[in-house]
């Protein structure tokens, strides 16, 4: 037992310390990136399932660091949440997205912009005030800003979430529940919130044309959304068969590689210019 214990220790310990090192390297470089304009956003089109028109985008964090190379949001966000950097980072994301699609933006139609918001940002008692300031400073219309919140963000501190969402709703913002179906949905609790949209997680959409079980889950979510008069956005649509499936069920919008990967601002402009009929 002692030999195997020794082995396990040797195998385990370097992994642990390199993970901790990676975490602190990300923290250090992220602090710097926040003050030196080292971050960027990519925008993924959100397509109307009936008209085929791009009506909005989701803003997604991108980071190409000189030392660390490309770091994905799945790595950045947990470090940002653990260190409190999520608050300034989240502010930066909101401000940048609003600036990019403001009134003087060169897009042919006004696009709605969806921004991912972490539970810890909602916990910030100054969130409404800071967001109001960003809208004022960028001139971005609140009606076109949608916040994407996960179920866990909403049930984390439900009474505070309800107060904050109600304040923001009064300003004109809308809200989507992200990754719907993957969390511990307390439907009674969610019902008390001013939510307009459910986003069906990509992990469900992946299987809809091959697995009867996944298809049944998505059908049940669609039925629920219709009963509650909520919009449905399907994430991660990669094939025409997935698109047909969700369109026939009466979904409203989709995102996915079938239309486009997330693009930088100029890539999005070029992509939209090249589309027929727009
Ligand atoms: P999410 O909000 O569920 O975003 C969808 C993710 O799926 C994005 O990954 C997007 O690039 C990817 N995706 C979109 N369409 C497809 C597809 O057809 N196939 C496949 N395989 N993937 C697709 P990304 O950009 O790596 O972001 C991962 C997660 O990180 C996001 O998941 C979101 O939870 C979080 N995140 C990203 N940006 C932010 C941010 O600014 N703030 C916060 N709090 N979280 C963010
Ligand atoms: Ca999202
Ligand atoms: Ca998702
Ligand atoms: Ca997510």
TrEMBL record:
Domain EAL per the UniProt entry, residue ranges: 23-276
UniProtKB keywords: Membrane, Transmembrane, Transmembrane helix
Protein name per UniProt: EAL domain-containing protein
């Amino acid at each position: 037992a002692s030999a195997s214990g020794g082995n396990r220790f040797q195998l385990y310990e370097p992994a642990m310390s390199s993970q901790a090192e990676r975490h602190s390297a990300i923290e250090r470089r992220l602090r710097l990136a926040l003050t030196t304009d080292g971050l960027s956003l990519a925008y993924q089109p959100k397509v109307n399932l009936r008209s085929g028109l791009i009506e909005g985008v989701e803003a997604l964090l991108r980071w190409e660091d000189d030392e660390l190379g490309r770091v994905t949001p799945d790595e950045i966000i947990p470090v940002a949440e653990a260190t409190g950097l999520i608050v300034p980072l989240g502010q930066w994301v909101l401000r940048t997205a609003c600036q990019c699609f403001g009134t003087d933006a060169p897009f042919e139609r006004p696009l709605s912009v969806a921004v991912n918001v972490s539970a810890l940002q909602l916990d910030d008692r100054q969130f409404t005030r800071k967001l109001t300031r960003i809208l004022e400073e960028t001139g971005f219309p609140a009606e076109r800003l949608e916040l994407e919140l996960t179920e866990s963000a909403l049930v984390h501190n439900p009474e505070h979430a309800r107060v904050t969402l109600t304040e923001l709703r009064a300003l004109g913002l809308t809200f989507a529940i992200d990754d719907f179906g993957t969390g511990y949905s307390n439907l009674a609790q969610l019902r008390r919130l001013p939510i307009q949209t459910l986003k069906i997680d990509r992990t469900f959409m992946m299987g809809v044309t091959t697995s009867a079980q996944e298809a049944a889950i998505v059908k049940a979510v669609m039925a629920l959304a219709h009963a509650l008069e909520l919009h449905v956005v399907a994430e991660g649509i990669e094939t025409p068969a997935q698109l047909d499936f969700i369109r026939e069920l009466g979904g409203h919008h989709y995102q996915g590689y079938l239309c486009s990967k997330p693009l930088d601002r100029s890539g999005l402009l070029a992509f939209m210019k090249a589309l027929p009929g727009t």
